[in-house]
Amino acid sequence: MVVAGALSLRSLSVSYGGAGGLCALDGLDLDAEPGEFHAILGPSGCGKSTLLKCLAGLIPATSGTIGLPGDGSVAYVPQGNSCFPWLRAEENVAYGLKLRGTPRAERQRRSRELLDTLGLTGFARAFPAKLSEGMRQRVAIARAFAVDAPLLLMDEPLSALDFQTKIAVQGELLALWRERRCTILYVTHDIDEALALADRVTVLTGRPGRARDTVTVPFARPRDYAGLRAEAGYPELFQRLYRGLEP
Amino acid sequence: MTAGRTIALGLVLPLALLVLWQVASDREWINPIFYPAPLHVLERTWDQATDGRLAHDARVTTGRLLWGFLLGTLPGLVVGVAAGVSRAVRDLTYPLATALYVVPRIAMLPLVLVAMGINDEARVFMVAFSVFFIVFFSALTGVEQVDRECIEAARAFGAGRARLGLTVLLPGAAPAVFSGLRVAMGFALIVIVGTEFLAANDGLGARIWTSYQIFDFPSMYAGIVAVTVLGVLLAWALLGLEWLLVPWRR
User: Fold this and answer.
1) Per-residue pLDDT tens for B167-217?
2) Which residues in chain A are contacts of B158 at CB distance < 8 A?
3) ipTM given for this complex
4) Least Cα separation, residue B80 to chain A (angstroms)
5) Nearest to B156 among A76, A84, A86 (CB)
6) Domain B45-249 belongs to what topology?
7) Among B138, B127, B125, which Cα is nearest to B77's?
């Protein structure tokens, strides 16, 4: 069952092949306040991506309740390169807007604005093949923000990037999030990334995934990796999350 | 290496072979009746091109080929994409298509002539039949190769089946489809010329075959030259179409 409100998952279970099939999530409870940046950590195969796909409407829930923020619409950044190779950067960004019937001029204005914000001024007419990996991920992020959905689902969007590029895109992502104040559910396998970005972090158990622990990240923003490690309480928090990932 | 140098290098061997052929025929190292010199062939080609006979046959062959190509491509594309999208359509069509794909196209000619008679419909059908399976398999493969992330991103934005097909699967499959179309065009040319050898009174295939039968070898070579030029022009046309419709692959 899907209801509108805050992001609230109750006893959410997802099985591939229906009930009795491979159980990926089993009775997951999770909450996120409106405008919260919520990171999901978990061991490989624990159902993190399944959770996002379920919320994006790509996989049906086997049982449980899903409460979505705002009008219930979501935007999704899949794992890997999801830019449409046949669309130019601005057309990629405008894809969701086009599906929603936004007039062409408005689509173009919003796409260009987002591309400018993400440092892609001058690349609006470029095809993804002509862009670097970091630029392509920026386009995918811009595409998700373009539709102004109250919930953004991001599945390890920056995992393929080199460290410097990742830091730069994280900064741009946070700037957009602060401006739009949408709820973000951000899957990562990187504890430092979760602590650098999120308000709260939920750790899932191994498959089938359940919420093992949820922690509030107490560090003031803006954060940076070097500064984080110097924060009081960082080692304890890191260790708590690390232990949560153990089988 | 510059483009000019690349082209010049590519021309060296063909030109050398032509010169060798000219000399060999002029000096009768080879029988000039069966292997007339290239300049003689060129002269005959020019004569037949200017008196309208070759142009007529080229028009006839091109018409049959293009109609057959179109009538094979469109259903091949539709059924191929449908098979890529729907498991049921795939299960229904794949075994038969696989079985028919391996049948040598020209081997179907007697059956087609029995069923349809010796007419243009049969010739066009032969081309369409040979093109259909190539386009079917290339469209099916193209759809299957579209990145899952792209499909999921589109579905998450609310794209239904029709929008997904039009905005993701078709453009995603386009490069594979064009690869298939290039192969299909080659097959189509072989099939129409082969069909005209055996079951036509006009067209370039008929001209080549008739010239061979009456020992008019310069005219036979003129026909071969015309078929080659036709093949090159059609290949260029397809490349141009791909350049226009698949700009992200440039």
Assistant:
1) 999 999 999 999 999 999 999 999 999 999 999 999 999 999 999 999 999
2) 96, 99-100
3) 0.88
4) 20
5) A76
6) MetI-like fold (1.10.3720)
7) B138
